Structures are given as structure tokens and as C-alpha cells.
Amino acid sequence: MYTISPTSQFKKDFKRAEKQGKDLNKLGNVLIALLRGKALPQKYFDHQLTGEMREYRECHLEPDWLLIYQLRKEEKVVTLIRIGSHSELFS
């Protein structure tokens, strides 16, 4: 079983998602799978990022609602980096 380690930026992003009325159950379902060390279903389009962000992974909770995270298998830790839309995360 993995543990979760959210960054301070993720916590801010999470509060914004709550205010926006996002379905946080979608995030919960992904986190349960990650905590169990399971691969995410294809519908989340989970993939490794490239370039400066190559140490992170990204999955789609909705078409324009993304989770960026880091999976550290040796330590069994999932670090939650950011959550938000493409424009919030990449502009």
C-alpha cells in the first residue's frame, strides 16, 4: 500500500476545485487505485510527462481536469503535485 503526500500547491488547487464544484469522487477513485499500487484504467489516459516535467505522470479525471502526480515506487509514496485544467496547469 502506498501513502499520499500532497504538495502545498496541490492543496490550494484542491480548494479551488471544491469551490468550482468539481466531482471530487472522481479524484477519490483515482487515489484509491494509486494507493493500492494498481494501474489506472485506460479511461484516465494516464501517461508519463516529458521535458522538464518528465519525473511526473498525468491523468485525466475529466477531459479538462487533470491530476499531476509522482509515483515513487521505492518509497511507496504518491506525491500529488497539481490538479486543475490544462490552462491552469500549463499556461
UniProtKB/TrEMBL annotation:
Belongs to the RelE toxin family. YafQ subfamily. GO terms for molecular function: RNA endonuclease activity. Keywords: Toxin-antitoxin system. GO terms for biological process: mRNA catabolic process; translational termination. The active site is at H86 (proton donor). This is Type II toxin-antitoxin system YafQ family toxin. It holds the Pfam family YafQ_toxin. The lineage of its organism: Bacteria, Bacillati, Cyanobacteriota, Cyanophyceae, Oscillatoriophycideae. It comes from Zarconia navalis LEGE 11467. SUPFAM superfamilies: RelE-like. It comes from the Bacteria.
